[in-house]
Amino acid sequence: MELVSRNRCFGGEQAVYKHASEACGVDMTFAVFLPPQAKSRSVPALWYLSGLTCTHDNAMTKGGFQQFAAEYGVALIFPDTSPRGEAVPDNDSYDLGVGAGFYLNATQDPWRSHFQMYDYVVCELRSLVQDAFPISERHGITGHSMGGHGALTIAMRNPGLFASLSAFSPIVNPCQSDWGRKQFSAYLGDDESTWAQYDATVLMSETGWHGDILIDQGADDQFIDLLRPQAFAEATALRRQPCVLRTHVGYDHSYFFVSTFAKDHMCWHADRLNGN
Ligand SMILES: N[C@@H](CCC(=O)N[C@@H](CS)C(=O)NCC(=O)O)C(=O)O
């Protein structure tokens, strides 16, 4: 693991690392924020999965999470959204290929040799950060847009790994959306039965989540028709799933929206991770 940058931040430390990823077959970059409490004990961790076109950097620099992570004693982990580099296949559009890994394991050529973001996040990066940093086994997960999709699907498929769950304007029904169908066809092939494991609305209908869920959504989100919050809301209601879905008038899809509600999400996770 190679240190790319390190900065003091709210009494803790914001660092960026690069490492050779076995799952993705290229070097991957990720960011970790350690709160001041991590100097003397291990702390719980919150994963933040980013959306289309993002790297580890967007939420790290614009999300505004560190101040509250420092206050509540929670580490932050910001993975990249896809493999990158000359060896990695790409596509001309912003929503397929580099920057658009959709947190799944691709089974189709040319994507399958590198686009293994599900295994990368759930297995490889988790065990790497657990070994390398003073991070306890209590983890929460959140994310924005494509990253909200990643957070919801990864948590519901791995209930033992996560103690808290939230999302910002998540893609919740990709099997029925152009933010999903195009990518799943390319990465997973035409057999739609293989897509369901990566659809939060389907997973909510089939398994649900063992805890409660916080979701914030902007009412003026320019991509709201692609996100399909109504489908997930219906699935949670049918399941009697404890879920707080807040729709905020005037807010769009940007990081101005994410940073506005960053404190609420940090507080939500800290309460559940710290066992208060
Ligand atoms: N690139 C697309 C949309 C990309 C987009 O809005 N991405 C969101 C996540 S889905 C994001 O966080 N972008 C990076 C940023 O705002 O820093 C466009 O420009 O229409």
From TrEMBL:
Source taxon at top rank: Bacteria
Any one GO molecular function term: carboxylic ester hydrolase activity
GO aspect biological process, one term: formaldehyde catabolic process
Active-site residues, as the UniProt record annotates them: 145, 221, 253
GO cellular component: cytosol
UniProt-listed NCBIfam families: fghA_ester_D
Family: Belongs to the esterase D family.
Protein name: S-formylglutathione hydrolase
Taxonomic source organism: Yoonia sediminilitoris
